[in-house]
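Give me the fold.
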Amino acid sequence: MQYSAPKGTFDIVPNPVKKEEGWKDSSLWNYIESVLKQTAHDFGYQEIRTPIFEQTDLFCRSSGDSSDIVSKEMYTFEDKGKRSMSLRPEGTAPVIRAFVDNHFQQSGSLHKLFYIGPFFRYDRPQAGRYRQFHQFGIEAIGDNSPYQDVEIIDLSLSIYKRLGIKNLNLLLNSVGDKDSRDNYKTALIKYLTPYEKDLSRDSQERLSKNPLRILDSKDSSDQKILAEAPSILDYLSKPAADHFDKACEILAKNGISFTITSKLVRGLDYYNQTVFEITSETLGAQSSIGAGGRYDGLLKELGGQDLPSMGFAAGIERILLTMKGQNTKIHETLKPTVYLIALGKEAEQATFSILCRLRSKKISAEMPFKTKKMQKSLQDASQKGFKYCAILGEDELSQNIIQLKNLETRSSENVPIDSIVSHLEKLSKACT
């Protein structure tokens, strides 16, 4: 029986055979991840790694029982100790849990963290949306300044710019503080109640549980009803309005363009104050390629101190598909250096010794241990992207030389066997 990857998942492999699946190439993933990590480092963020499964209650308390993630999408199971566990559907709650669990609050007042890895949601698979997906996220804990909001927005935009992604749109809103939301919920319920029977089934349920989430509905009938709905920006308390106005002012002064979208809300209950989304039309209906916002109060809710916090997350699949859709030039990954070919048993041992010496000098090298014809070996070297091919046969051994071919220029030279390692060291340094 032949097995396939589970529905909604895929393999990340070197050199995919199908051209349309080129975005699954592991070298591209390594490149994207290196840019993500370097950008986070440049902004002062440090990596944190959490388990891929947590207690189910962690996500119920943080995301809200009525959220789509908790009510419809989590992979939940009972372990052998009869405890309810769930594969992580998002990254913020596990980071906050780890923050409390590892006593971060004892080691300073500001903590800037990033994470990267696989996440899981039982959702209908479609372009840019998978049941196992990969996400990069950042969390800043301990600062309630609007400058912190803008730093995170700037970091997120910097990632896409460094990757060469164009035509970005920054959508911005405030969902206010608790007083703001309480006042707005009253106004929104009053507006929506006469239309209750015309709302989608999900929105009818949300009307009594969490009416703000109706603003996030993609249902066309809901969208028509919401067109004339009151704006949350008209219900912001003075502190919330001042915070949002200052964030907008900082963005404008630093040349970061944005569009205020009063119906923008995040799909999780813990968000408050500034929320944002970055979109690109390249992916069509799934236009969002990253989003974030402030979540003051979540740390206290999960057993820690009451510290202000803000974060951002981006799906790596959506980044790659956007780059593919825009024909973004991918920064060329480092090519392996030298492919060694031994012709005959006598040359085999000497070639393997050279292989070990090259690797001890941190020079990428490979040698096939199964005898192949010369032409096939050269084809393998070219297909794998090697810059050089070194050939050692009986004739070369008798002359104490090794033939070095440049697979890019097609030129060749004979190098003394004793000098091949130092010679390739110089060539490698010249290329970096």
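The chain has two domains: 19-177+237-325, 338-431.
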